[in-house]
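Good morning C.,

I know you're traveling, so I'll keep this short. The sequence:
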Amino acid sequence: MQEEIKKLTNKIELLQTTLKYYTQLCTNLHKKTIQYDRITTRISLLKQRFLFIISFLQYCGDTSCVYGSILRKLFEFVFHFNTLQPDDTTADITNSDVNILLEHTNGEYIDKVKLSSYFYTLLHSLNTSRIFSEHVHNYTPSFANYKLTGIQYVNHTEKNGNIIPKAICYFKYKSDNMRVSVLAWKPHDIVDLNINQYMMTHSGIQSFYTYSFMRYLEHIYFKECQYTPHLDKIQQQAFPVNSSISKKEKLTHLLPLYSLLTHSYFKVLSSGYSLLNYGCIQFESDIDCYITGCKPPYPKLLLACNHSISLMAYKGILLSTSDTDTQAIRCPICRNDLKIYFTKINRKNNTLQYHPPKNPDITTLFQQKYSFISKDALEQI
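The tokens, ready to paste straight into the viewer:
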């Protein structure tokens, strides 16, 4: 009887071990299924949008190009498709705009009046066709099955006050609602991070500046990035040492700086990128923001006066209209100028290792390949 109980106990233990094994196998299979769905979804969207880009650039003309994060995300997929995580935005272009330039050459050498006219003619033709399609079916302008649903004109104003014609075009294909930003020509402040500084033209992939394409790919592979503008110099313009400027003029420098700190960096931060040149954003995990009351975790800035302030409070101070009688923008604690303390990271760039080939010994090479030849003969060949 005891022997039978022992055998049954062993069988139960074996069944439990087998059940545990197959449970883990099912769990792993479920994770791989989710991973596969994530990969196929992202590659399908990349394919659809690049087909749109090809057809739309042909419509826009030979000097047009696409630029920005969509090229980076294409290479992100190549390097990181097998490690995509549920909350990771790597290679995910669902919420990314498609950025188009009608003219990608330097603005100093183009006829801006002629190009502005071409810009409005091109988009007016699109919009007129869309409106006409409301009365005539199957006439909606489309590019690779993406149909135009609306156009909004929102001119781009540079820091120097120059205005560049810009429009946001809305396209839809199945469940994909896509925003396409169209600029007439290249702004001076077009690049924020070095991983966004390449464009795809009718002639191929080119950089806005002189920059190694191999280094660009290495940065994407190692998930590293650098600000291309000098953030400390932008801030210095808002707080000149030997002179004072109006609050309105300060904001022309500080609001773009805030935009660089948030919209640019946070987008790549969610994909696991780290900064190589500037460090100024930290994350508070314990204490509520003493100005906005925001719960942690939240981003905060270390100031030059050694105080810290949440990014939300920094934005609130910049946009506040209550201090209309003063031109100052100050720290809420010590009342010194609201200067961010920028630390230079100077992190060493990662590089892919390679080992150049050595010239082989000709005698050894022949001995390996032609063993039927004598050593004496080899030395005289």
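Safe travels,
E.
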